[in-house]
Design a protein that fits this description.
Elements lengths: L3 H7 L4 H15 L1 H4 L11 E2 L6 E2 L2 H10 L20 H13 L2
Antiparallel strand pairs: 1-2
């Protein structure tokens, strides 16, 4: 974690504006934001692609997934490896070469 002086220098802040920004950063990192509660909306009714039945609500959705051994698409890990950013130039050059090659 950066010190106050390092953070102000990094963002080129000073004086009253810097103090306000630092105080806001401290408030955001403190317990005030973490203590705010958030209520998520319930799922809108939808028709199952597996059984055709209508699923109404979050609980019914979870039970349907469990009953039919399904997972949400967001929970599936990508099968292709994510390219590393350190050799991005090499990857781009290789793709361009492959496209231009006859």
């Amino acid at each position: 974690m950066r010190t106050k002086e390092e953070w102000l220098e990094m963002w080129h802040l000073s004086g009253e504006d810097g103090e306000k920004a630092w105080a806001e950063k401290q408030r955001m990192n403190g317990n005030e934001v973490a203590s705010n509660h958030y209520v998520r909306d319930d799922y809108k009714p939808y028709q199952s692609m597996v059984t055709g039945e209508f699923i109404e609500g979050r609980k019914a959705h979870r039970e349907h997934l469990r009953r039919h051994n399904l997972v949400e698409a967001a929970d599936i890990k990508p099968s292709m490896p994510v390219p590393k950013k350190d050799n991005l130039k090499e990857q781009i050059a290789r793709e361009v070469y492959n496209k231009l090659r006859y």
